[in-house]
Amino acid sequence: MFIVNELEHKYMFSEPVISYFGEYYSALDKAKTIAFSDEYDVFDDGSVVIKSMPGLTPGSSVLLVRLNKTGKILLTGDLYLHAQGRKLNTVLQYNVKAVTLDSRIKFEVLVKKENARVIIQHDKQDFERLPVFPKYLN
């Protein structure tokens, strides 16, 4: 099952993008797909919710995970690349700056509302703080 923001799906299968990356994800074009616009509740119980946070691409998203023991976690996707960038609010040259900054405001409001732990997947320190398989967060 391919779950994707509808704007991201349109973007990733646009001519310039497909001509560059198509061979790497061409199978997704024929996959069973669920497209969403603002957010998508993966298990329909609020435990895992994909939220639209555009910036790097039109359909960039973050992931809110509500775990029983660990609590709430927000995975940043490409919204932030490292902790220092989050602190300084720097924006990659590839991002649409105004859109990214707007998404970051929404993200930080969500962090406070959910009292969530933020995990920046691109940040080596955040990644190294995660349990190593077969261990996991619960």
Which helices and strands appear, and what pairs or packs with what?
Elements lengths: L1 E4 H7 L2 H11 L7 E4 L2 E3 L6 E5 L8 E7 L3 E5 L7 H6 L8 H18 L2 E3 L4 H5 L10
Parallel strand pairs: 1-2, 6-7
Antiparallel strand pairs: 3-4, 4-5, 5-6
Could you characterize what this model shows?
This protein is an alpha/beta fold and 138 residues long. The protein has two domains: 36 residues, no CATH class; 101 residues, Ribonuclease Z/Hydroxyacylglutathione hydrolase-like (Metallo-beta-lactamase, Chain A), CATH 3.60.15.10. It contains five helices and seven strands, in the order βααβββββααβα. The strands form two sheets. Strands 3-4-5-6-7 form a five-stranded mixed β-sheet, covered by helices on one side. Strands 1-2 form a two-stranded parallel sheet. It is globular, with a radius of gyration of 16 Å. 19% of the residues are buried.
Return the CATH class of the largest domain: Alpha Beta
| Biggest sheet overview | 5 strands, mixed
Query: Could you give me the name of the CATH homologous superfamily of the largest domain?
Result: Ribonuclease Z/Hydroxyacylglutathione hydrolase-like
Q: Please identify the oligomeric state.
A: single chain
Question: Mean pLDDT, rounded to whole units?
Answer: 94
Which structural class matches the secondary elements?
A: alpha/beta
Overall, the morphology is globular
Tally of discrete structural domains: 2
Strand content: 15-25%
Question: Can you tell me the residue ranges where pLDDT is under 50 for at least 5 consecutive residues?
Answer: none
Q: What's the CATH topology label of the largest domain?
A: Metallo-beta-lactamase, Chain A
Count of DSSP E strands? Answer: 7
Give the fraction of residues assigned to helices.
Answer: 25-40%
Q: Architecture of the largest domain in CATH? A: 4-Layer Sandwich
N→C terminal distance: 24 Å
Radius of gyration: 16 Å
Determine the number of helices (DSSP H or I, runs of at least 4 residues): 5
Strands of the largest sheet, in order across it?
Answer: 3-4-5-6-7
SSE order: EHHEEEEEHHEH
